[in-house]
């Protein structure tokens, strides 16, 4: 059994210079932002009028890619948990190259036989987040660095869509070749950023004292951790599934929703809604670095998540009742969802491990949560098509978000209560 001691400690004398945190934040942000260029280029395409077996062709593509992502997350539970600290840059390059080649084959092979290539595209990309985060976890500045890395989800999602839509409009690239062309635009910058990623210094002695040692986790250690925190993990992962589900639908079908709301052929829209969200989330989560007490930070993260669900629900309620414009709704619902989603990828699990001084790594927990989250996305998309729910994406999405907000707040409350009680019990037991 893992021994808990020194739950709140003070730092030792050897510190990382401030430039390390800034450098790591910038490079991880740029690295993962370029990786998105190989994943999200096709989402600006609507493939209008193309259906197979009664299901929209784009839905087939999204399901195929998410299935690849889901399988990667399941496999990554072991792979990322046991990841060693050498050769990581070469692994990122290999995985990205496989995903890019799959996009070339997607363009060359006629539909619908090219659908499986989206699965092949999603699988290697699903492994990269855990590898990139392994460079920066377990540091005093992980909240700031992780926030920078995590908001690359938001910024790059909009930026890649803007680049892809611009390529489609100005260079008249077909919808089938567009994903590969978008990957080409991001490939050479990725090579540079992988090189710079390898130059990030390891955690300092102060980092290790403040956030605990981060080490590979064996199968036995993973089972021990889950058994020790099972009720809290169930509550937290349920919240994450809700967030992933609606964030992913918004991310994959935002072009379709804009079209339904009367905004077509406007590439700047993707960046206009995501850039303010990127800045707000970065500032709010980066501020967590000021909180040295890991347990207090973990509690505040729960309230942060609750606020995100509240923003999502209230803004959607106002939009449904025509009190909020489509532009403001899409911006605010994105802000709320990312306020619930991003903390798990940079603060929640990192502070959880640090709070209980458990020798492990964040990648394992993120991949457990992601495997459930993306599986939920697939189930909802398939259900919508099989049950032949005739709602347009805007109506389907807005109705679902209302229920999501209520359940998300409830789950966050249960998670907060569990981890608070767990912490107090351990303090009493270990004096």
Overview of the structural elements:
The protein has 431 residues and is mainly alpha-helical. It has one domain (18-430): Growth Hormone, Chain: A. 74% of the residues lie in helices and 1% in strands. The chain is built from 15 helices and 2 strands. The chain has helices spanning 18-35, 57-81, 88-108, 116-125, 128-134, 142-150, 152-171, 178-197, 205-211, 219-260, 268-286, 294-320, 326-355, 362-386, 393-430; strands at 51-52, 55-56. Strands 1-2 form a two-stranded antiparallel ribbon. Strand 1 and strand 2 form a beta hairpin. Helix 5 (128-134) runs antiparallel to helix 14. The longest helix has 42 residues, at 219-260. The chain is globular, with a radius of gyration of 21 Å. The two termini are 18 Å apart. The relative contact order is 0.16. The model is unreliable at 8-13 (pLDDT under 50).
Secondary structure layout plus pairing:
Layout: H1 18-35, E1 51-52, E2 55-56, H2 57-81, H3 88-108, H4 116-125, H5 128-134, H6 142-150, H7 152-171, H8 178-197, H9 205-211, H10 219-260, H11 268-286, H12 294-320, H13 326-355, H14 362-386, H15 393-430
Helix pairs in contact: 1-5, 1-6, 1-7, 1-8, 2-4, 2-14, 3-4, 3-8, 5-14, 6-11, 6-13, 7-8, 7-11, 10-13, 10-14, 10-15, 11-13, 12-13, 12-15
For CATH, the homologous superfamily is named as: MFS general substrate transporter like domains
Strand content: under 5%
CATH architecture: Up-down Bundle
Compute the number of helices. 15
Q: Into how many domains do the coordinates divide?
A: 1
CATH level 1 name: Mainly Alpha
Low-confidence stretches: 8-13
The helical percent reads over 70%
**Main sheet summary:** 2 strands, antiparallel
Number of strands: 2
Would you tell me which CATH topology applies? Growth Hormone, Chain: A
């Amino acid at each position: 059994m893992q021994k808990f001691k020194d739950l709140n400690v003070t730092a030792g004398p050897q510190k990382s210079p401030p430039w390390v945190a800034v450098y790591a934040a910038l490079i991880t942000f740029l690295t993962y932002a370029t990786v998105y260029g190989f994943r999200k280029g096709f989402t600006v395409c609507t493939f209008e009028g193309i259906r197979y077996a009664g299901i929209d062709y784009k839905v087939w593509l999204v399901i195929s890619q998410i299935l690849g992502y889901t399988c990667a997350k399941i496999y990554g539970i072991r792979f990322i948990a046991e990841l060693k600290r050498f050769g990581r840059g070469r692994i990122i390059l290999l995985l990205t190259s496989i995903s890019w080649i799959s996009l070339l084959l997607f363009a060359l092979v006629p539909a619908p036989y090219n659908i499986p290539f989206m699965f092949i595209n999603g699988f290697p990309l699903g492994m990269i987040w855990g590898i990139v985060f392994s460079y920066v976890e377990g540091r005093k500045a992980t909240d700031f660095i992780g926030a920078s890395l995590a908001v690359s989800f938001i910024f790059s999602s909009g930026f890649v869509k803007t680049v892809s839509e611009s390529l489609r409009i100005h260079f008249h690239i077909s919808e089938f070749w567009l994903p590969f062309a978008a990957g080409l635009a991001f490939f050479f910058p990725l090579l540079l950023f992988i090189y710079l990623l390898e130059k990030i210094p390891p955690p300092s002695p102060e980092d290790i004292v403040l956030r605990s040692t981060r080490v590979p986790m064996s199968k036995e250690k993973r089972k021990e951790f889950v058994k020790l925190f099972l009720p809290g993990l169930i509550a937290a992962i349920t919240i994450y599934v809700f967030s992933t589900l609606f964030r992913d639908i918004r991310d994959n079908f935002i072009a379709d929703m804009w079209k339904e709301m009367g905004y077509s052929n406007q590439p700047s829209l993707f960046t206009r809604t995501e850039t303010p969200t990127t800045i707000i989330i970065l500032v709010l989560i980066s501020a967590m670095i000021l909180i040295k007490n890991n347990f207090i930070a973990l509690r505040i993260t729960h309230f942060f998540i609750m606020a995100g669900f509240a923003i999502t629900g209230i803004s959607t309620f106002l939009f449904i009742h025509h009190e909020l414009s489509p532009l403001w709704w899409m911006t605010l619902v994105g802000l709320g969802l990312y306020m619930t989603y991003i903390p798990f990828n940079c603060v929640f699990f990192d502070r959880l491990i640090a709070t209980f001084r458990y020798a492990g790594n964040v990648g394992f927990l993120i991949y457990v949560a992601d495997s459930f989250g993306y599986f939920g996305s697939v189930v909802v998309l398939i259900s919508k098509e099989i049950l032949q729910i005739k709602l347009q994406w805007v109506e389907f999405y807005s109705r679902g978000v209302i229920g999501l907000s209520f359940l998300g707040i409830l789950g966050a409350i249960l998670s907060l209560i569990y981890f608070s009680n767990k912490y107090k019990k351990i303090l009493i037991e270990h004096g």
